[in-house]
Amino acid sequence: MFSKSCEYGLRAAIYIAEQSSLKKKVGLKEIANAINSPEPFTGKILQILTKNNIANSLKGPHGGFFIEEVNLKKIKLSNIVSVLDGDAIYTGCALGLKQCDHTSPCPLHTKFIEIRERLKVMLEENTLYDILYTQGEKNIFWLKR
């Protein structure tokens, strides 16, 4: 459903958010390792995330990537998807066909509309904070898989 860039971007943002909640800044190598992504590709994704104010970066010996705590409640998953994939996830064809719309639907068109709408709601209603915390309790979930 998501592009590889978007998958890695979501993983990176969640990992950075988790580490930021522990008052840690993380470097490119650590992020790439944690999200199981090639380092150069991760670097390009992090550039996009920082350019779009999803993550912050600080250079120097005490530098790294971080997300300010106040922004954890503001940054929606839809923000991350939007900067990396645009709105194609909400408008594209389930089968990837260019000629799929309500006048010329693919076999999955009608069923996929509902899935896209539910996905959009989920991405718009959940922030990085919501992913990290359940009823104010921190979720410990980040495991290298």
Entry keywords:
Arc Repressor Mutant, subunit A, DNA-binding transcription factor activity, WH_DNA-bd_sf, two-stranded antiparallel sheet, two-stranded antiparallel ribbon, mainly alpha
In brief:
With 145 residues, this protein is mainly alpha-helical. Helix content is 54%, strand content 7%. It has one domain (4-138): Winged helix-like DNA-binding domain superfamily/Winged helix DNA-binding domain (Arc Repressor Mutant, subunit A, Orthogonal Bundle).
Describe the structure.
GO terms for molecular function: DNA-binding transcription factor activity. With 145 residues, the chain is mainly α. It has one domain (4-138): Orthogonal Bundle (Arc Repressor Mutant, subunit A), CATH 1.10.10.10. It has helices spanning 4-21, 28-35, 39-51, 69-72, 77-85, 88-91, 109-125, 128-132; strands spanning 56-58, 64-66, 133-134, 137-138. β1 and β2 (64-66) form a beta hairpin. α1 packs across α2. The protein is globular and about 55 Å long. The mean pLDDT is 91.
